[in-house]
Amino acid sequence: MATDKPAGAQVEQWASLIGTIAAPITVLGALLFYFGYVSSASEYAYFGINVDTIGLSTQAYIMRSPQTLLVPLLVLTLASAGFLTLNAAVRRRITSAVTLGPDVADASAIAVQRVRHIKRIAQRSRISGLAALTVGFIMLFAYPYMRDWPFYGLVTPLLIGIGAAIIAYTSHILTLLQRLQGQQKWGAGKDNKSTSPVADQAGGSLLARRTAGIFVYVMIAASIFWATATIAQWSGRGLAEYAAIHFDALPSVILDTKEQLWLHDPPSVVTVTQLPASEGQTFHYRYRGLRLLIVGQDRMFLVPAQWSPSDSTLIVPLDGSVRVQFQFENQAP
After folding, report:
1. Is 169 within 8 Å of 213 (Cβ atoms)?
2. End of a domain among 244, 264, 294?
3. How far apart are alpha carbons 131 and 145 in whole angstroms?
4. What is the model's pLDDT at position 133?
5. If you write DSSP's letter for every residue of 1-69 in order, what string do you get?
6. What does the alpha-carbon distance between residue 303 and residue 84 come to, in Å, rounded to a whole number?
7. SS3 state at 147
């Protein structure tokens, strides 16, 4: 009869399970926060605002990241599906080329011809990957001369990542081909007590290949991260430009102040009127033609109802020094 596990072992098992689940969630949350921050920083920089002055919470940045990551995730999903399909077809082709049946006439010659053809394709692909990787690294070190190119932040990591991925995959294909050939020869010479090809892979060469593989995968991951960050910047800038064109979708604000603000925005957009003096009245000026861009922790960011590159963003503290009214512009019920 099986005995129950001690309480301490159960607690340790649950703690291990929680740690296994929590670690990926923590990494995912950090990535969502980072890309949400990059997108928001680019978006509000268009209006002359440092995103840190807004005081958005961690949750706010995470909630802003899905829209930014939608395109990269779709591209990676389609690329992964295409790679899996291609890999399955390539492996079938290699297996059929190496393991021709004995009933096929001139099986050995046909197999050798097919293997040579696959090796030529793999070697040419690896040269192409090495060329792309070389160009990517040249562009990386030429940053001081190419940083003003709008597509630098996307083309450079793509060249590095695609080049490293092609080199890694073609090396894997050549290794697989070599292993299948070795197994075929070992199976044919089994009666002669030949050594297994697996034993020949032991030693420093295997360690060197694994170390190089780790560096290649780190390079691919870093390139994907860089390209995604660039897309996040473009996404934030695109959101800002769209918002600037459609300021009429933002809430309309009437702002009362104690002192005149002396805004340099065109009077036809932001108008100011002096309020009539009355007993107990502390606000003397009323501004119309403002729109609410975003609300931070203790301040509001207002923009003119019509945006132009020469306009400014008004920062209004929420401390009682101003009076704010939101103007309804809905259709009649």
Report:
1. no
2. 244
3. 21
4. 93
5. -PPPPPHHHHHHHHHHHHHHHHHHHHHHHHHHHHHHHHHHHHHHHTTT--HHHHT--HHHHHHHHHHHH
6. 49
7. coil
Angle, CA of 202, 204 and 208, to the nearest 5°: 110
Distance of alpha carbon 124 from alpha carbon 119, whole angstroms: 8
Q: Is 255 helix (H, G, I), strand (E, B) or coil?
A: strand
3-state secondary structure of 252: strand
CA-closest candidate to residue 102, choices 4, 184, 182, 167: 184
- Tell me the pTM: 0.77
Query: φ and ψ at 304, to 5 degrees?
Result: -65, 155
- Residues 237, 90, single domain; the answer is yes
The residue type of 33 is: F
The number of beta carbons lying within 10 Å of the beta carbon of residue 118 is: 18
CA–CA distance, 228 with 161 (Å, rounded to integer): 12
DSSP letter for 196, please.
P
Structural domain of 322: 250-327
Domain boundary among the residues 244, 278, 305 is at 244
pLDDT value for 199: 47
CB atoms within 10 A of CB 196: 11
SS3 306: coil
Which parts of the chain sit beneath pLDDT 70? 1-24, 97-112, 180-204, 265-267, 329-333
Neighbours of 167 (CB within 10 A): 22
Q: Is 49 inside a domain boundary? A: no
As a 3-state breakdown, the chain gives helix, strand, coil percent values, each rounded to 5, of 65, 10, 25
Query: How far does CA 287 lie from the centroid of its chain?
Result: 42
